[in-house]
Amino acid sequence: MDIRFWGVRGSLPSPGPDTSQFGGNTPCVEVRNEGEPLIILDAGTGIRKLGMEIINDPTVSEIHLFFSHTHWDHIQGLPFFAPLFSPKYKIKLHGPVHYSKNLEEILSLQMEYTYFPVRVAELASELSFHDISEEKIKIGNGITMETKYVNHPVICLAYKVTKDNKSFVYITDHEPYRNLYADADEMGKEEGRLVVEEQMQALIDFVEMSDLLVIDGQYTPQEYETKIGWGHSSLDDAYALARNAGVKEVVIFHHDPDRTDAELQQMLKDLQDRVWDPSTRTIPVRLAREQLVIRLSP
Ligand SMILES: [Zn+2]
Ligand SMILES: [Zn+2]
User: Fold this and answer.
1) Residue-level pLDDT, tens digit, the chain, 298 residues
2) Proximal ligand: closest to the CA of 253
3) Could you give the CA distance from residue 171 to residue 215 in angstroms, rounded to a whole number?
4) 70 alpha carbon – ligand 2 mean position (Å)
5) Distance 281 CA to ligand 2 centre (A)
6) Rounded to the nearest whole angstrom, what is the distance from the C-alpha of residue 40 to the centroid of ligand 1?
């Protein structure tokens, strides 16, 4: 299984000389398994270049695109995804169930004529929409996709891709559950603590022993204190989940749009200094950057 990053930035694209090393495109991750349908996680602006590569690759015909959620930074590249415009491709779009609108309605809105010249109904590819919740989905001959709700201001799913006993977990736009009882009274706080413990354990169980965890680590611990409830984690929270779940490697994702390359490198170094402990195993941690490829060999 090859995991390639096409967009690693949260909230808003941030091109420019200060971000060229890690990249300024919003979330998009490609998951390739030989002889299997192509999997894509999120359609931020990074998906445009991936689409161009797919067009030049005769081996791709079926594509499963999974949205973590439908905030703008995760859907905005979709109208520029070239395979949508070709009858050669069968494309399945999967995303979390919403109370008011289904996935097709939500994605069609950003392609209304006021915003974009081509409407969803006019796309040439064989397109289908799938509203999903917490479930297990079989893809191709040997891929399993599992989903889990995470903690964000809108309904948001984490994904686990498993093939040949190798697993990769993708958690973007997630905040540790501790914000859930921040404003509660004493009784509410006690109840809140129990809910938080339960939710945290459920997430650890979901991630448990995976080979690779890609996870939101947008803030420094100091920044997080002023952004509680915004739906993102600090690097330390991201690392703590990786350690508690015993993953083999962790990649920090969804970088802040204001963060320069130099600042990102410093953030990583500071984290590594904080978590280094010679008495326990330190989990390898790196920062997501565009065109980084990680191979999980069976
Ligand atoms: Zn986001
Ligand atoms: Zn979001």
Assistant:
1) 999 999 999 999 999 999 999 999 999 999 999 999 999 999 999 999 999 999 999 999 999 999 999 999 999 999 999 999 999 999 999 999 888 899 999 999 988 888 888 888 889 999 999 999 999 999 999 999 999 999 999 999 999 999 999 999 999 999 998 766 666 777 778 888 888 899 999 999 999 999 999 999 999 999 999 999 999 999 999 999 999 999 999 999 999 999 999 999 999 999 999 998 878 778 999 999 999 999 999 8
2) 1
3) 5
4) 7
5) 32
6) 16
CATH of the domain at 43: 3.60.15.10
Give the distance (Å) from ligand 2 centre to CA of residue 173. Answer: 5
10 CA distance to ligand 1 middle (Å): 5
Distance 149 CA to ligand 2 centre (A): 13
Q: What are the DSSP calls for 81-139, one per residue?
A: -GGGG-TT-EEEEEEE--SS--HHHHHHHTTSTTT-SS-GGG--SEEEEEEE-S-EEEE
Interval between CA 7 and ligand 1 midpoint (Å): 11
Number of domains in the chain: 1
- Could you list the beta-strand ranges (E) of the chain: 2-7, 28-32, 38-41, 62-66, 90-96, 126-132, 136-139, 143-149, 157-163, 166-171, 212-216, 250-253, 285-287, 293-295
Q: Ligand 1 centroid to 175 CA: how many Å?
A: 12
Q: How far is the CA of 173 from the centre of ligand 1 (A)?
A: 5
* 277 CA to centre of ligand 2 in angstroms: 33
Ion ligand 1 neighbours, Cβ < 5 Å: 10, 73, 173
Sign of CA dihedral 96, 98, 104, 106: negative
Q: Which domain, by its residues, includes 251? A: 2-295
